[in-house]
Amino acid sequence: MSEQFDFETLVDRRMQGSLRDSMTDPRLLEKGLPSFMAAEMDFPTAPCILDALRKRIDCGIFGFALCDKPYQDAVIRWMKMMRNWEIERDWIVPALGTIFSLSIAIRAFTAPGARVLIQRPVYDRYDQAIIRNERVPLDNPLILREDGHYEMDFDDLESKMALPDVTLMVLCNPQNPTGTVWKRDDLERLAELAVKHNVVVFSDEIYAEFCFLDEPVVPFAAIDAAKEIAISCTGLGKAFNFTGVNHANNLIPGAALREAFTTQRNRDHYGSIDPIAYTSVLAAYNSDGEWNRAVNQLVLKNGDLIRAFFRQYLPSVKVAPQEGAFTIWIDWRGLGLSDEQLFQLLEDKALIQTNHGSEYGNEGRGFCRMNIATPTVEIEKALQRLLEAAREAGLTSGK
């Protein structure tokens, strides 16, 4: 399937004002090597979007865009096709991105100084949004099992949901950075606790198109018991390599919750849908999904290469089960290295730049998150550099 799309050519990002390039080690840029940090793919978005944008540019009109019937129909179609979820058109509440949406929820459903539940290791921008809105992150740490899977600590979660100032929780599904996809049983138990303690759950589901299980990601707002307290935040950002266009759709079944969220959104001076986002949503969500399935195949292939490498040469290094997202979570603690030694090996010796696990909380020390939505040949070359560096350090087994 992936043969019809070019996933093997690195795109030149120079002179594009790339945030990712600004964070990339200059040694990599000089050598034309990709960075494996920051969750952006290394190839262009889907051809259907590019074709639609060319037509939009030829039209030359970039005025205000509405959440109108064609837009709603596209979102409804995509949710049914890709997530097996039938939604109503009035559930769709556009906003200017995932973290912007989270900030709306923080201001709408918590008081200044209140605590907001998160589950570390987790995306560090949640902390940032909570703190910038003058609230306090409250951690319900995930439990790492012996087999590399993560699970929720429901006893700890309930004790913290019961605190009087806790009225909002941030869920990430698929979970960033671990790649865990929360199953229906997990979500139903979470919904039961949230309803019991009157806690709103903001569920970040922007990686949901990347799911490698037999069933699609279950949207939290699709759980019957959660409908009055759930916000499922979706968008093109990760699914179509569209992170720089600030846009998201918040799917909110509960009428009272939706009204409160929309009121706060409008207080925050939300105007209209970005016309680039409008055109792109219609093109993407009316497509057949073949591009997304092809990207999934590439990500699985790259993940298989990495796991095979570690099994052969560095068996004490463990890769988390690849359930969702296009990043993988690698546990290096078996090497017995400090974080400083680990990233000296990766970055200085092997020229492999990833996100340090500590970015996601203390629970991430000794880990890294690696973006693998990149040409397979770049994964192969990076693993060869790592093999040479590990051999030089006396860390390898195998031939």
TrEMBL record:
One of its GO terms (molecular function) is pyridoxal phosphate binding. Residues 69-386 form the Aminotransferase class I/classII large domain. It comes from the Bacteria. Keywords: Aminotransferase, Lyase, Pyridoxal phosphate, Transferase. It holds the Pfam family Aminotran_1_2. The keyword Coiled coil does not apply. Coiled coil: none annotated. SUPFAM superfamilies: PLP-dependent transferases (SSF53383). Its EC number is 4.4.1.13. Gene3D superfamilies: Aspartate Aminotransferase, domain 1 (3.90.1150.10), Type I PLP-dependent aspartate aminotransferase-like (Major domain) (3.40.640.10). The keyword Transferase applies. Its cofactor is pyridoxal 5'-phosphate. Belongs to the class-II pyridoxal-phosphate-dependent aminotransferase family. MalY/PatB cystathionine beta-lyase subfamily. PANTHER family: PROTEIN MALY. This is cysteine-S-conjugate beta-lyase. It comes from Candidatus Faecivivens stercoripullorum. The lineage of its organism: Bacteria, Bacillati, Bacillota, Clostridia, Eubacteriales.
